[in-house]
Design brief:
The chain is of the alpha/beta class and about 1000 residues long. It is built from 27 helices and 34 strands. A hairpin with a 5-residue loop joins strand 2 and strand 3. Helix 4 packs parallel to helix 17 and helix 11 packs across helix 12. The radius of gyration is 28 Å and the shape is globular. It is found in: Cell envelope.
């Protein structure tokens, strides 16, 4: 008799990740992916997060989720979360506070801010970090009446935005994308893995599957560069020079798309040549102000050349040659100026090779490959469309060459012109918004320049006449006083940095400390870790935050700071307003701000509270958190201050909270923060009256809204009648006129003329040479300022028709005082500073190294894992080196923002992030070596993080990196082993 087999154990082969699932939007980077958050009952703490996965229905990530997004559990349950409002009781920087209630905190803030608004609203400087809610914060600043508002883009990506918006009406970054479906050749310029990562990974997978070629241009080969078919290890700050060499080769070989240029750009517009005259470099126009072009002679050769409006149809315009206008002035087409400049031998591959670190033959080959992909492998989509002039086209011609760029080219003092150089390269290939090329994402393209100018005048109710940030069209739009001095505390929109469309967050603390151009009363910041990883010149910044005047008063009298976590900046606040996590509040990912559109449709999204903040703590014995979403707090403060638009006629608050504002606020009639489900019953999109159930509709539809573009409107958006009419109906454009792409910028030329002594508004004498040099209407390249000023030039001069502004500091003949470039790279598993407190992400990396090529180590007598001194013109740090073959030999690099100050983020004081981790920020000056301007681009004011030049030397073995600062007493988390999820398993076994 057989013994019966033991019964099989009951195994759940498909366990549920939780007992409830909700959809929302991730906040672990700027990607803004859709996520599904699985919740499960956690006993006394109520619902807790069990699992986070990608939402396959979401248009951004289509279900893909990275390590950061998955680790959102540990971000939400971080021990570094703040729990109560805090009021400073000790010296600023000591981290000594007492907890207070919200009523007291809001009353203190109101008591500080109300006299400022009554006296002079500009005494409030309101600067926000990585908040993704600028549609609210900018409007709040406008209603308060202060010109002193900025967002983090000034030290992040304004070169990218401005370079594109003043050229294409759109830009790289998050507002455009390669045509992943049709591109055959992709160039990635300075792209790290932190922004837009999941869509890029999806797109790169499509390219690899099709066999398209991917070329990565970056001093460091990581992430995307590691899977590229070719890595171009370029020297930092020379990307523009490389682009010009490619342009040189394309022009020389006549491999350009002239038909595209004449149809969609200002290549044929006539530019007046009148050296020294007030109209020199401006477009020739007719009596009605329309730009003119010169016509080619008739085929018979009879008759004189004529002129016509440049937007006329069925004409054959001239693109080269000098022409005499009817009034006797001389003029040449824009393309003539392009050929004249970039065919110069100084831009040849042989001339730029040594400076860029790229073999001349490689440059020539890349140029050939671009031309072959664009012209020999052009594609034709069988899609009929009508252009803006009414001409019908049976197909869409595509140039399957695409480019994408990010901070690596933008964060230099020559970044604005480098971004424009890349766009010029694309335009010459006919590769903007055609099948296979770079594509606009709605609501782009915008008119060039975008119509919203920065606010500068206060109305009778105290509010500014426009939002504080905007786009300057001419000198009269600057925010300067009668003597030409800055009106803003950060000096944005001044003669020193005229096109600073995002403001200049990196200059506000020094200027507020110095009272330049005036003293402020209160500095209010949100999610801006300006005392640590967001500071250029970290040590001095800490000093400015704590410095006192002769009377013993702080030179920056009051600091209000809002954050969700105990970052380094908390210690320097006088009043701390604790924010929620991203899973405890409403947010609007708005088309008015930073939409999540793709090239085939418009989209926006929300976040909504999945969890009650009062119940959410990591340990069951922790007390409830008393925190509020900063957006709601801001509206509460606005109502207490009686700001226009935030109170009803009886003085009561107009909005209950941020959710109420999202639904009911209208920027213009029918236009609100969210475009989906508008109208009384949610029957409208983009424009329509508020819908009281709008947020519920979003929640029911996965947290997002998307409107598909008609197929005939998806390409040539700048001149596609179908797209332009659609965009006007949606409220993205004020009119449906075509947008002419600007190879040559008349806006820049207007500033150059002012610097040459023309016009009613001219720069002060000290700025004239600077403006005249850098406001070139065609893209140019110059040595980044730190490289030009902080070291002696090599014996072989860099090719440059426009000499670097400023002088060189002393040094030996032919000697490089700081021969190495030093840059940071963003890892896929981290984003801004908050990632390095995340318990799961910390397991990937808890410290950083300074990476250098083995050949570089041999050159300086340094071995792998030696301790080294790294010095810039500002100072010295001591760190540990690590050999890496994935870096250009004249460059050293490290991961960004992993280094922490001891005691911050409630990490253990011996945490590797603090003892061995480090920041390059200690070496990065906030001003140029000469000391006369911010360490920034002279056109936009963007922080030049990646201009850093250093020397290295072997150091004695050490236990800690240097410098070290006194630990911050912000609390320490429980160091017991983390077994998140064990409680769920125990409950399941019961």
């Amino acid at each position: 008799m057989r013994t019966p087999a033991p019964p099989e154990p009951a195994i759940d082969t498909s366990p549920s990740p939780g007992d409830e699932v909700k959809t929302t939007t991730c906040y672990m980077c700027a990607c803004r992916c859709g996520i599904k958050v699985w919740l499960q009952d956690g006993g006394p703490q109520g619902k807790m997060i069990r699992y986070i996965q990608g939402n396959p229905e979401h248009p951004v990530n289509q279900g893909v989720l990275c390590a950061k997004g998955s680790a959102g559990i540990m971000q939400h349950y971080s021990p570094a979360r703040l729990s109560k409002p805090l009021l400073r009781v000790g010296e600023r920087g000591a981290g000594e506070f007492r907890e207070i209630e919200w009523d007291e905190a809001l009353q203190i803030a109101t008591d500080w801010l109300a006299p400022i608004r009554e006296r002079n609203p500009d005494e409030l400087a309101f600067f926000t970090g990585r908040d993704q809610s600028q549609a609210l914060t900018g409007w709040w600043a406008q209603q308060f009446g202060t010109v002193n508002y900025a967002a983090h883009g000034g030290f992040c990506s304004v070169n990218m935005a401005a370079g594109g918006l003043y050229t294409l009406g759109g830009s790289f970054w998050e507002f455009g994308e390669p045509d992943w479906e049709h591109a055959q050749y992709l160039m990635l310029w300075g792209v790290a893995e932190d922004h837009d990562s999941n869509p890029i990974k999806l797109g790169l997978g499509k390219l690899k599957e099709r066999g398209a070629k991917i070329v990565a241009v970056n001093p460091v080969r990581s992430g995307y560069g590691a899977i590229a078919d070719e890595w171009i290890g370029i020297r930092p700050g020379t990307d523009g020079l490389f682009a010009f060499a490619l342009i040189h080769e394309l022009l020389k070989a006549d491999r350009i798309d002239l038909d595209y240029l004449v149809r969609y750009t200002n290549a044929h517009w006539l530019v007046v040549r009148n050296p020294g005259g007030p109209d020199d470099g401006l477009f020739a126009r007719d009596a009605e102000g329309r730009p003119l072009c010169a016509l080619l002679p008739s085929p018979s050769g009879r008759g004189e050349r004529g002129f016509a409006p440049a937007d006329a149809t069925d004409i054959s315009p001239s693109v080269v040659g000098e022409h005499t206008l009817p009034d006797g002035r001389r003029a040449v087409p824009v393309f003539h100026l392009i050929a004249e400049r970039y065919l110069d031998p100084q831009y040849s591959p042989d001339a730029v090779s040594a400076r860029c670190g790229i073999p001349a033959d490689t440059i020539r080959r890349i140029a050939r490959e671009l031309a072959q992909a664009a012209f020999d492998h052009a594609i034709e989509l069988p899609i009929a469309w009508t252009d803006a002039h009414g001409r019908e086209h049976a197909t869409m011609t595509g140039r399957p060459v695409a480019m994408h760029a990010m901070r690596g080219i933008s964060a230099h003092s020559n970044g604005f012109h480098t971004c424009r150089a890349l766009h010029l390269l694309q335009l010459l290939l006919g590769a903007i918004d055609t099948p296979g090329s770079f594509r606009y994402q709605p609501p782009f393209p915008k008119p060039i320049a975008p119509p919203n100018r920065p606010g500068k005048t206060r109305q009778a109710n105290g509010a500014l006449d426009a939002a504080p940030l905007g786009f300057v069209h001419a000198p009269e739009d600057l925010l300067v006083d009668a003597d030409g001095n800055p009106r803003r505390i950060d000096h944005a929109f001044s003669w020193a940095y005229p096109l600073s469309a995002h403001g200049m967050m990196h200059t506000v603390i020094r200027n507020a400390w110095a009272g330049d151009p005036y003293k402020i009363d209160t500095l209010m910041m949100f999610m801006a870790n300006m005392s640590w990883n967001s500071a250029m010149n970290t040590g001095q910044t800490i000093g400015w935050l704590t410095d006192k005047d002769a009377n013993g008063e702080y030179k920056i009298p009051r600091i209000i700071y809002a954050d969700a976590y105990a970052s380094e900046m908390i210690a320097y606040a006088d009043l701390v307003l604790p924010d929620t996590t991203y899973l405890e509040r409403f947010d609007a990912i708005s088309i008015l701000d930073r939409p999540i559109s793709d090239a085939d449709g418009a989209a926006d999204a929300i976040r909504h509270p999945l969890l009650d903040a009062a119940q959410q703590s990591l340990h069951s014995d922790a007390r409830p958190r008393d925190v509020r979403g900063f957006q709601s707090v801001l509206l509460d403060l606005g109502a207490r201050l009686g700001l226009p638009g935030m109170v009803l006629d009886d003085g009561s608050p107009k909005y209950h909270d941020y959710a109420d504002y999202i639904v009911h606020h209208e920027r213009a009639p029918g236009v609100g923060l969210l475009a989906g489900w508008r109208g009384e019953h949610g029957e409208l999109e983009a424009k329509g009256p508020p819908n009281p159930q709008q947020l519920q509709r979003y929640i029911e539809h996965g947290g997002f809204w998307r409107s598909e573009l008609p197929e005939h409107a998806r390409y040539y958006k700048m001149a596609n009648r179908g797209y332009l009419d659609w965009a006007q109906r949606m409220g993205f454009l004020g009119h449906a006129e075509p947008i002419v792409l600007q190879l040559y910028s008349e806006t820049l030329q207007k500033f150059r003329l002012a610097a040459q002594g023309h016009g009613p508004l001219q720069p002060p004498a000290e700025h004239r040479e600077r403006v005249a040099t850098y406001f070139d209407p065609l893209p140019l390249w110059y040595e980044p300022f730190e490289g030009a000023q902080a070291q002696v030039r090599n014996s072989t001069p860099a090719p440059n028709p426009h000499p670097p502004y400023g002088h060189l500091l002393p040094g030996g003949e032919g000697e490089n005082r700081f021969p190495l470039s030093a840059v940071t790279q963003r890892p896929m598993f981290m984003y801004h500073a908050w990632g390095a407190q995340n318990a799961w992400l910390r397991q990937i990396a808890t410290r950083n190294w300074l990476y250098l090529h083995p050949d570089t180590g041999a050159r300086y007598g340094i071995d792998d894992e030696d301790w080294i001194h790294v010095s810039s013109h500002l100072g010295t740090i001591t760190v540990q080196a690590k050999f890496a073959g994935n870096v250009q030999p004249d460059t050293v690099w490290t991961w960004n923002a992993i280094g922490k100050r001891r005691g911050a983020w409630r990490l253990d004081k011996a945490a590797p992030e603090a003892t061995q981790g480090f920041l390059l920020n200690h070496l990065i000056s906030d001003i140029t070596p000469r000391g006369d301007y911010a360490n920034a681009d002279p056109v936009t004011g963007q922080a030049a993080w990646f201009d850093l030049r250093v020397q290295i030397a072997k150091a004695a073995p050490a236990a800690q990196s240097q410098p070290q600062f006194a630990p911050l007493p912000l609390g320490t988390a429980d160091n017991a082993p983390l077994r998140y999820g064990a409680g769920f398993r125990r409950e399941r076994r019961k």
